[in-house]
Specification:
The protein is mainly alpha-helical. It is 81% helix and 0% strand. The chain has helices at 8-24, 29-60, 62-71. α1 packs antiparallel against α2 (29-60).
Length: 73
C-alpha cells in the first residue's frame, strides 16, 4: 500500500512492524535496506501528518494557544 493511501494509524502500525523486524535482525542486508527506506518514508509521512494536525488545531483554537503561551512565561 502506498504511504499516501494510509491512515496515520496504519502508517504507525507498519512502522512498528518494521522496527520489530529490524530489531530481530533476521533480515538480509538488502531486506534491511528496504525496510529502512520504507521506515524513513513512513516516519516522514507520520511527522508531516502530525504537523498538519497541529496547525489545524492552532487555527481552530487561536485563543487557547495564546493562553498557553502566557502561562509559560
Amino acid at each position: 500500500m502506498k504511504t499516501e493511501a494510509m491512515t496515520f494509524e496504519e502508517a504507525m502500525q507498519r512502522l512498528e512492524e518494521i522496527v520489530d523486524q529490524m530489531q530481530r535482525s533476521d533480515a538480509t542486508l538488502e531486506e534491511s535496506l528496504q525496510l529502512y527506506t520504507e521506515g524513513t518514508k513512513l516516519a516522514k509521512y507520520c511527522k508531516d501528518r502530525l504537523k498538519k494536525a497541529q496547525l489545524t488545531i492552532e487555527k481552530l483554537t487561536p485563543d487557547a494557544m495564546l493562553e498557553d503561551e502566557k502561562d509559560g512565561e
